[in-house]
Design goal:
two-stranded parallel sheet; protein-containing complex binding; 7-stranded parallel beta sheet; disordered C terminus; NAD(P)-bd_dom; alpha/beta; 351 residues; 2 domains; NAD(P)-bd_dom_sf
Length: 351
């Protein structure tokens, strides 16, 4: 039986975090605990949660997000629920998988009388989107249509040690001092520090009860991906980067290229590249009028990179290996003027 959200006072009941073992979820949980929240996590493995630094400070609902009964049990008595699930891997059915997971969660949240849902999606322009970005937009709409007031926060590149998008930026910059690359390196991006994403997510729990909408979040700087590579190199003393772009390189081939010259798996690179073929810039700043800013203000790109690399050992291997990777990147990109030749280049390089 559905519970009326108005029956439960704001802040009464635990906060549920899905995706708690992921990058953002793993940062959000300790922040919520720091703010005095009672936190429950949905996980397939209670033992895995117990191994985490904050594992003994949370309630664990052991179950699968695809199982309606498990999700309903996890949401019982919950005040605010964070939905931080999406497919980073590909597969022909990822859109349907994400759609069904979101529908299961939205239905259970409404039935259990959850007061608010919070979801992290991606910044995007109007119009046709890459499949992965379109799927994230669809998931946000499913939650917004759930009948439970929902805040969909939309972010671009997240800058933090452990973020997949930051790892891709880091390794491309480290390993490609000279690169002829896809033209999306010239698209405009408004990156955001991981700490600031977590701040806005935590604050979203206490938004006015009648708000049910998307909010764009981002840092103060708008840069191209090429500019981010150049500034990352300068901040980490890697030396100047020489970047040229070519007009043709499909997201599929670009993800294979990323997987070839960096440790980022091509399956993970595909949705990351797909999100970069569009400009990713805030179209509104309404959330800034509703919640306080991060302590000290939103971090700019330089400060976010300094935080992310403070304890990081940069992969400064032999210069020859780095130059070799740059040559591979240039060869793959230049070979991309036609799809078949580019695939041939990739096959030869992998053999």
């Amino acid at each position: 039986m559905a519970t009326d959200q108005t029956d439960r006072p704001a802040g009464d009941g635990p906060v549920l975090v899905t995706g708690a073992t992921g990058y953002i979820g793993g940062l959000l949980v300790p922040e919520l605990l720091r703010r005095g929240r009672t936190v429950r996590v949905l996980s397939r493995s209670a033992d895995r949660i117990a191994e985490l630094d904050w594992g003994d400070a949370v309630e664990v609902a052991e179950g699968d997000a695809s199982d309606a009964d498990d999700v309903a049990a996890a949401l019982e008595g919950v005040d605010v629920a964070y939905y931080l699930l999406h497919s980073m891997a590909g597969g022909d059915d990822f859109e349907e998988r994400d759609r069904e997971l979101a529908r299961t969660f939205a239905t259970a949240a409404a039935q259990q009388g959850v007061r608010r849902l919070v979801y992290l999606g991606g910044l995007h322009p109007d119009g046709e989107l890459s499949p992965h970005l379109a799927s994230r937009v669809e998931v946000g709409k499913i939650l917004l249509d759930s009948g439970v007031p929902t805040a969909v926060l939309q972010a671009g590149v997240v800058l933090g040690d452990g973020s997949a998008s930051f790892d891709m930026l880091r390794y491309l910059t480290e390993r490609l001092p000279v690169v002829v690359a896809p033209r999306w390196l010239r698209n405009r991006i408004q990156p955001i520090a991981a700490d600031d994403v977590v701040h806005y997510l935590a604050e979203a729990a206490d938004l006015p009860a009648d708000l049910n909408r998307t909010f764009d979040v981002g840092g103060p700087d708008v840069l191209t991906y090429a500019e981010m590579m150049e500034r990352f190199a300068a901040l980490t003393d890697l030396g100047p980067r020489y970047i040229a772009t070519v007009p043709v390189l499909t997201p599929e081939l670009a993800s294979l290229w990323v997987g070839l010259v960096t440790p980022v798996d091509s399956g993970v690179a595909r949705p990351l590249v797909g999100s970069l073929i569009h400009d990713a810039v805030r179209s509104e700043e309404d959330l800034d009028d509703l919640v306080p800013p991060p302590p000290g203000g939103a971090a700019g790109f330089d400060e976010a990179v300094r935080r992310a690399t403070r304890d990081m050992h940069l992969s400064l291997s032999a210069q020859g290996a780095r130059l070799g990777a740059g040559a591979i990147g240039a060869a793959v990109s230049l070979g991309s003027a036609a799809t078949a030749p580019a695939r041939g280049v990739l096959r030869r390089l992998r053999s």
